[in-house]
Amino acid sequence: MSFEPKIVGFLCNWCSYSGADLAGVSRIKSAPNVRIIRTMCSGRVDPAFILKSFQLGADGVVVMGCHLGDCHYQEGNYKTLRRIPFLKRLIREFGIDPRRLRLEWVSASEGDRFAEVVNEMTEEIRKIGPFIHSATKIKK
Amino acid sequence: MAKPKLALYWAASCGGCEIAVLDLHEKILDVANAFDIVFWPVALDFKYSDVRAMEDKSIDICLFNGAIRNSENEEMAHLMRDKSKLVVAFGACAHEGGIPGLANLTTKDAILKWVFKDSPSTVSNNGTYPQTHTRMPEGEIEIPEMWETVKALNQVIDVDYYIPGCPPQPDQIWGVIEYILSGQPMPAKGATLGAGDKTCCEECPRERKEKKLKQFFRPYEIISDPNECLLDQGIICLGPVSRSGCGALCPKANIPCRGCYGAPPNCPDQGAKMVSAISSVIDAHEPEEIEKILDQIVDPLGTFYRFSVPQSILRRVEKI
Q1: Most exposed of A139, B78, B131, B134 (fewest Cβ within 10 Å)?
Q2: Complex ipTM, two decimals?
Q3: d(CA B124, CA B146)
Q4: CB A87 to CB B290 under 8 A?
């Protein structure tokens, strides 16, 4: 059976979630691999949520937020802008390919962009292959 | 009435927790008066066979320090669990894996290869390498097998209470002992004893301002102001993500907090929280500038999880 990547998507309520919704109502075709979790802001995504996703078997995690300057809470996505590159460094040290974690800006009017990001990431993760968290197999 | 029975055991640890108990000074005599110490390999000559001969649950309290990293540690953890009514994970190693837990950043093979073959100070002409079984003229010798992954105590056995710290502070240890002796009802199972439920910053006397950081320093690169928050000065201090209880000993001595008391309540992962905290105070809005600032933070994994790799969400690095 071919490998179907499992991707967890944290989408901000104000822009990206609406963007995903728009992709849906506009009937834009996109890969079904992203499991969407709505958060109030991309800045609400605690790095622990992302690590937990990998622990529970996600092959990739994508965080989507409003474009810079558009944050409903003014500064939230700037925190994300700093947090995700930092977290990429951390997961690289943990031996996880940093390409498995992505940060994308998708506005409420960019349904096509949402579909594009999802398709692109799904294909990339498909190439990288499945992620199996070694700690889940720890015996000794 | 017979005195309650107390056992102390050390697994993968440095011995600092034992010293912390001895640092009770004269009060150690009160401990000896109040308890019947039935097992304490560091100080008293009891053998494992003596413990095996005891009845199950005959020990009232076992203070277990050290991480679990080999077959002997694990066997003793199970044995102490069987024989004790209460098992307390004592100190950072038993609580969260501690310094030995940093072994989870590499593999068993890499560690043994470095220690017994590659390190410049190793002379290994005859290829000495640890074996679990060795034939000698007198018979076969068996030594414990080292595990691939270091574990905290509660990843091996059921643990009743935790006393964090590297090492736990003697006044806190005494506080717990006094509490037990007072006969008051014990807190709910799984509670952390001998520590606060806020962060290290709460106890730190340094003055904090609004943090806006463009530059980070390692402690040797800067002469820090003794009254200002270390993190404000760009020194990575784990105070914001560490449990209170030590009285902010390190920051008071001009050393950033290393996080030995572990994550504060309701924080699942010390390192993740530190990533979050630092990201919030970096004063930059352009990706290139952010990357440049992040370049100054050396080894986030080893720094943020200095004592807590085995208890973190990811627990170990993926095999390289």
Answers
A1: A139
A2: 0.93
A3: 20
A4: no
